[in-house]
Input
Amino acid sequence: MAIAKVCGIETEYGIVVRGADNNPVSASSLLINAYVAATTSRGDGRVGWDFDDEQPANDARGFSLADVVAPEIETNLVNAVLTNGARFYVDHAHPEISTPEVSTALEAVRWDRAADEIIRRSMVHANARLAQQTGGQPQVTIYKNNSDGKGNSYGCHENYLMAREVPFGRIVAQITPHFVTRQIFCGAGKVGSELAGVSTDEVPYQLSQRADFFEEEVGLETTLKRPIVNTRDEPHCDPQRFRRLHVIVGDANMSEVATYLKVGTTAIVLAMIEDDALGEDWLVAHPVAAIRQISHDPSLRRTMSLRAGRRVTALELQWGLLERARKYEQSHGLAAVGEDVGRDVLRRWEQVLTMLERDPAEAASWVDWIAKRRLVEGYADRHRLAPGAAALKAIDLQYHDLRAAKGLASRAGLDRLIDEADVVTAITEPPTTTRAYFRGRCLAKYADAIVATNWDSIVFDIGREPLRRVPMMDPLRGTAEHVARLIDESDRAVDLLRALGAG
Amino acid sequence: MAERTQKSKQTGRTTESDEVVDTTTPTSESGEKLKAELDDLLDEIDEVLETNAEDFVKSYVQKGGE
Output
């Protein structure tokens, strides 16, 4: 049976400073430092990030490119670990939040929303600092999107826990059809195209922020020649038992339902692949061409070739995957993705495909590209604007603006899944169902005794040499069920370590 | 309609919901309501949209990430 699809979302946010020096690296650092200083008693002194186990150059296909094109690890940039188990850091020239590890799509939505709220609060603190420094009214503004409209893209990555014994070739072949077509309900929408030689007349509006940037079917890169399936083999847990599928093909979503469907359907399809219950009927003949073609076709009517020779629409392919998922539910159950959440994801998956088939406009309260298109087209009609007009691109951009006073997504009538109170608690509290619970609780209670942490360990300094590293090699250990009482009963880190048998 | 009839033969449906189409087609009344909602929304966009759209869009330049 498939193992639990522990998952998480990493979002690189767009950042702009208006009214002061627009340096994205220093602005990102300011953002994070201002948040940490305002929300902890440690000033700018953060718990460090431990880079010992980072190996982004390892390739899941069984080799390492460490000395050839190793993705840089910028260990000098700002890194903070939060009490909700998330990591808040500067990646290249963007602020990035990786949610804590969660065990269901619903939890993924909750901590993704918490990440957005952390960004909102960070903007307020950063702007107060900037005002102090400059005496003016400069504004750091953050956008949750994936492209600047000028050919520069940044990612929103998902991660899913997979059993190591599943052949990687099977994962690549069988997940690709879903990655190519799921954008019909989880694309975030974009005015125009960033592909060279494609005009606004040809593509006035498309489903995905990201589809223009994918050039390969499979590979290790994330910044150039981006592949539909990324092969980074860096499990951040026991590599003998697990792999982490690092998914770079998705858009950042403003819609909670879109995030829920993106993560929920992908987790189910991956569970099916792990149990070898999906099969290869839906393999797409030309995935790179198909992912772009689907993104460029809001009518959802164009067909693509399957390897089996038939031609199908993206919707037909999604109906096919859903049918398999229904059979899988009957034969295997949905324990790997959480039974209740899994059932609800299947129900909404069917509902969204039904709406898209009847009239995509019906899905405007769930699907970002449709909600955004409604604003863009309505505005163009009202002001008689041509496709690609600057005001329409401004609406596209401002849909993703995280400032409450400016953001358009929050005004677009999107359905909510998470109560505001649950978003607020998730800003400071970790999920209870994964090792993120242990990380978050330890940071909240023993921060002064923690030297560094990363995804799979925490290093404690309890005043006696040597430092103590507590490994967390299984993402499903260190949950509230395992350690809540231990932490509750341990006043000091030294007590906790003694109770864990490591002190 | 031909499109819909053809698509409704798709496998994967667990409910026989083809007839639902008619009941969910917006009536003129709900169509009016949707239009009024959109009008309100567009009014609001007119209020909050960054004033110089051209500069606003042009000045949004990011470095690639990931």
Observations:
- The interface with chain A takes residues 3-4, 7, 10-15, 17, 21, 24, 37-38, 41-42, 44-45, 48-50, 53-54, 56-57, 59-66 of chain B (CB under 8 Å).
- Chain B has a mean pLDDT of 69.
- The two ends of chain B are 44 Å apart (CA to CA).
- The CA atoms of residues 4 and 21 of chain B lie 10 Å apart.
